[in-house]
Fold these 2 entries.
Entry 1:
Amino acid sequence: MVRLINYTINPEITIATAARLCYSSYDISKIEKDFTGSNGLEKARKLIKKIRISGHDSVLEHAGFTFGVEKLSRSASHQLVRHRIASYSQRSQRYVKETKPQFVIPDSIANDAGLSDMFNKLINDIFSLYGYFIEKGIPAEDARYILPNATETQLAFTMNARELLHFLKLRGCERAQWEIRQLAKDVFKLVYPIAPSVFQGAGPACVKGNCSEGGFTCGRPLEIRAEWLNMAKLAAHS
Ligand SMILES: Cc1cc2nc3c(=O)[nH]c(=O)nc-3n(C[C@H](O)[C@H](O)[C@H](O)COP(=O)(O)OP(=O)(O)OC[C@H]3O[C@@H](n4cnc5c(N)ncnc54)[C@H](O)[C@@H]3O)c2cc1C
């Protein structure tokens, strides 16, 4: 579950102003006025379209987005924090005790009654033992060593628009693991309506061109492209 906590006000105007000032002799205030006046947003979006085509993406770094994520497994959060051009704050397992068994169960297991019973039993046993360790005075930072990857976590992360595009490309791809892929899709749905010119065509490589995964391709580029374009359409009207 992800929500947008905060973001740069008027991200498209901020980006366009930063981009224009590189090549303009006008004062910044005049450039800004141009983008905030009548048709300003339209002008900003036109400029961003050109920037995206040219690949001069550093100006996209002027717009930042902060997300709050809950009920994510530690397995997925470990993948998320591999993205280095970002800031993270994650609930500590040293200072916060995992007293309640809160965990993520993948559909592949949940959809099988027998396997999901075994999964739930084992996880509940682990959390019981964890609780026993805590009762016995074992510090939380040590008791957590027995907790599973499925354990839920919560975190906040901030990425700029350039890194978000990179994140969506890698983690929105069918090759990415399902939980972080779902997070990528949910993030896309949140940011697209706020800055459509920036996130137009965001997502895996197949949204804009050919699949980049070679032998690992899912083999469904047209279907995936349609899915992302449809997500953008729905998000724009949400
Ligand atoms: C499908 C999939 C499978 C994966 N499997 C594995 C796996 O088996 N094992 C594993 O360890 N990881 C795995 N990863 C993680 C992957 O290797 C990356 O660590 C992760 O996706 C972060 O991406 P990144 O390094 O491109 O970019 P980020 O950390 O998001 O950085 C963005 C970009 O900034 C630049 N950059 C950042 N830091 C540096 C730097 N120090 N030097 C130069 N340029 C830099 C690069 O251009 C980089 O692409 C997998 C990822 C995916 C999507």
Entry 2:
Amino acid sequence: MHVAVVVPTYQEAGNIADVCRRVRDVLPDARIVVVDDDSPDGTADAARAVGAELGDVEVVERHGERGLGGAYRLGFRRAIDAGADVVVQMDADGSHDAGDLPVLVAIVAHGADLVIGSRYVPGGRTVDWPRRRQALSRWGNRYAAGVLGLAVNDATAGYRAYSTDALERTGFEQVRADGYGFQVEMTHRLVRAEGKIVEFPITFRERTVGRSKLSRGIVNEAFGLVLRLWVADRRGRRERRRRGM
Ligand SMILES: Nc1nc2c(ncn2[C@@H]2O[C@H](COP(=O)(O)OP(=O)(O)O)[C@@H](O)[C@H]2O)c(=O)[nH]1
Ligand SMILES: [Mg+2]
């Protein structure tokens, strides 16, 4: 079972070495794919330096482009091309505990299409998040799941593992959404495809180094995206009814 861990980075020079070391400690055979968007703080160089020490760290640099969605699309493709059976996505800032990796991977190995490291199932939590941030994430998730009927508690989560087969079936390269919207749209695609989704409780810790890059604009984009997906679902249902399916 080949595992690749895709880590998108923007301005994470102070974090990237630690996260790569932690991943290597728990999954000695995993490939690490860092996707950096030309961070001015030298994140890519820091990633290459730690890669030289650890081995099997691929540093992919995008120039003149920003955005989490694009970084994931490219990182996933690289991971699949390198032969991964399981593709994990993980933040660089220490919010996601590498200690959870073995169980996330094991759940996929046992047949799940997607396992979400979830803050909003019993046992899951967020630590050191300001109340406002917590409320926004909690209600954003209720809104997305409620409107789209997702039956997933943490559709915006960025700590996940996909089976490569399921990932290919989602057509992830067609997803245009960015930021939290990317996570929601990927979840929506898998739910519609009747994929087997498992939520595993995690503790999400606010970063201690650097700062968040996900802005108000990204949040608003995700709200609009949910409505667009809802409209598309309705259209699809009507179309199928008309064709008598
Ligand atoms: N490649 C790339 N990575 C990004 C971008 N924006 C955020 N990231 C990375 O995505 C992860 C999550 O972003 P972060 O700012 O911590 O979001 P938050 O945890 O929701 O506050 C981190 O590893 C970031 O470095 C981007 O535009 N491009
Ligand atoms: Mg973060």
